[in-house]
# Entry
Amino acid sequence: MGGAASALEGSKISLIHEIPQELQSWASLPQLLPGDESYDASKDFRSWEFDIWQLNNEQMVLMSMHICNDFNFPTLFGFETSVWLHFVWEVQRLMSITTNPYHNFRHIMDVSQSVSCIVNQFSASFWLHDFDMFAVYIAAIVHDLEHPGTNNVYQVNAMTPLALRYNDISVLENHHCSKAFEVFALPQCNITHVFKPEQNRYLRKTIISLVLITDMTQHFNLRGELDSVITRHTIDAEPTKLDEKDTLVVLKAILHTSDISNPAKPWATSKRWSDLVLQEFLEQGDREKVESLPVSMNCDRNTTQQDELSLNFCDFIVAPFFFSMAKLLPKMLSVCKILEANRDEWNNMYTARAATFEDENARKEGLDRWAARRSAFADKILVLETSLKAAWTTPSQRNLDLTESTTTSTEYNH
# Structure
């Protein structure tokens, strides 16, 4: 991942950026947001409840630097602020080529901030080495590079150049990986230049695996792998360190959890993200109609209902995965409860819409069906909380205190 800048001759990377004086040292970064005497989680980028919508692009770049400091990456790995800034600025440029409602620079920064919370706030660091944490943080930042605003189904059906290049297999995810390593090949952006060749090989292998897992077709396979890791390492036993294979599963789970985390953020933030992803879906559906392509699932503005889409995504995708994550990281139970509260909001929206149904039988059938699913979801949360209290009986299990567990050696190799 070094050199090779000639392969990207003509890149429009903004190398004319001068590094502001206040960003020239990792040790003296300015405060991200003005503070006051009272604590507000929505203004704390170290909190899961942080509202990233209050930041502009420049502040999101600064946030990425603060997160680096929290991980202690500059001290551990020794890269300069200038290299980091040029890297993130190039990511920002690539995410601005298309004006996507959802898959944009803010989404990438939101996912990377969520990764940092899972690792630090929810103690996933217990399971990981510093180099692994670096890999998953970088993967979060590059996981949607140069996203076109349409999904893989569209890419394949339209036989786009990307679909032809990647043989219809995880088209966008392969593209994001390729763009990421093009960026790393630019000397001004090469945050990996400080590593040994064997470390770079491991980092490349890991980042590729992590980005490829963000293909939603991999969701159920990943959940099965995660549940298997949990069974081997936490059930009826003190938590134990992971081998390389299981570590990769946990890293994949952290990134995937962060990528689908919007339904489990505080309601105002969650609803805003939902509005934007729906907008992007419907714009794709409009495009598919114009191009005489099959309209992708949840992309037809004549049939897609946001409340039902959100409830189904919660019940079948997000909640089961988050419940598994809570078994690995008990502190994530609080996130599952946020998810439950948001689910109630969507259920209330459906109930209000159902009141307008002219067909009384359809109205009753729908209300009964969703009421049953609401009750079942509440039962699952209760079972999860009870099982966590029963399974995690010692302080180290419940809190995952890492005071003696975290590797800090920059010489760590796989």
Notes: The two ends are 17 Å apart (CA to CA). DSSP finds 16 helices and no strands in the chain. Residues 1-16, 401-414 have pLDDT under 50 and may be disordered.
